[in-house]
Amino acid sequence: MATPFTPLTNTKHGEKYRPIKVSDIVGNEDAGYRLQVIARDRNMPNLILSGPSGTGKTTSILALAHELLGANYREAVLELNASDDRGIDVVRNKIKMFAQKKVTLPPGRHKVIILDEADRCTVSIETDDGNLLKFHTLSDHEILGRLMVVVEAEKVPYVPEGLEAIIFTADGDMRQALNNLQAIYSGFRFVNQENVFKVCNQPHPLHVKNMVKHVLEGKFDDACSGLKQLYDLGYSPTDIITTLF
Ligand SMILES: Nc1ncnc2c1ncn2[C@@H]1O[C@H](COP(=O)(O)OP(=O)(O)OP(=O)(O)O)[C@@H](O)[C@H]1O
Ligand SMILES: [Mg+2]
């Protein structure tokens, strides 16, 4: 039997399938292109990356910093994330000390400070639109491509409908898709629709689809009893409405 693969995405570092090169990050071509130009020209501006969860913001910036600084990464990159306190004292101390630290870098390279999850910073950050890279949720096709890489590398048994169900529940969030894949594999060793909806614990889309069908056919009592069944199973109204949507 195959051994379960190590956690994919629930730790900040050491995520097995986090792309290492900017060019391996799928989707968001505009942002990706700008990052590749920065990597190529070695001309790092102040940048803000914004967008929904699990779409590659942290991944992109770590990859870019590695491409720019290579072997100097450890001494030339300061990473501050949500687990660090980032009040004004941190800005005064940690960042200032890092900025003053002497690091010998190849010509044209600069030290990089990464303020991950900066929306939780208590210090205001200024930018203009030119420095803002917007990320968007990933398409089904983009998520499928990446899931296939993992499924093949880890020899995870699956049927296509199982992967489709993972993509459905992930809703454009690659981290969610990979976490779900892992949870299903750990729990059942087989990715099919049934197992996905057991693990992801969303109302089964076929059930919800039937409710919509009943409504379209004017069978409102049937639709309502479908709704009540889900509610009695313990799904919250939000879960039901989200799946309906
Ligand atoms: N565009 C992508 N291409 C390939 N893998 C991705 C992509 N986006 C996310 N992933 C995978 O999902 C994981 C989480 O991505 P990442 O940490 O970059 O998300 P994020 O955009 O920073 O989300 P958050 O807003 O929650 O911080 C990564 O480890 C990587 O495996
Ligand atoms: Mg992030």
UniProtKB/TrEMBL annotation:
The organism's place on the tree of life at top rank = Eukaryota
Q: Which residues form the AAA+ ATPase domain?
A: 43-157
Q: Which GO terms describe its biological process?
A: DNA repair; DNA-templated DNA replication
Tell me the keywords, alphabetical order: ATP-binding, DNA replication, Nucleotide-binding
Task: Report the GO molecular function annotations.
Answer: ATP binding; ATP hydrolysis activity; DNA binding; DNA clamp loader activity
Q: Which CDD domains match?
A: AAA, HLD_clamp_RFC
User: What GO CC annotations are associated with the protein?
Assistant: DNA replication factor C complex; nucleus
One Pfam family matching this protein: AAA
Q: Which InterPro entries does the entry link to? A: AAA+_ATPase, ATPase_AAA_core, DNA_pol3_clamp-load_cplx_C, DNA_Rep/Repair_Clamp_Loader, P-loop_NTPase, Rep_factorC_C, RFC_lid
The protein's assembly and partners: Heterotetramer of subunits RFC2, RFC3, RFC4 and RFC5 that can form a complex with RFC1.
**Similarity section:** Belongs to the activator 1 small subunits family.
What name appears for this protein in its UniProt entry? Answer: ATPase, AAA-type, core
* Organism of provenance: Dillenia turbinata
